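Entry 14. Ran structure prediction on the chain below.
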Amino acid sequence: MIVYGSLKNLLGPHHNEDEPGAAWPRMYQRGAAKGYPAGSAYRVMDYGLMEDFRLVRSE
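Output, structure tokens:
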């Protein structure tokens, strides 16, 4: 099985409270208002295999 993905959650910003998925230069310049949160509190978008899958053999 080959699963393809992207770099959607790689670079962030993960700690801003602006529109999810938006990334503008000012978001990196000002940083988090109250300091950087723990990694478990970062805002990332769900991405990848979200449900069960099945393998089908075709000949």
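The helical segments are 25-30. Will compare against last week's run tomorrow.
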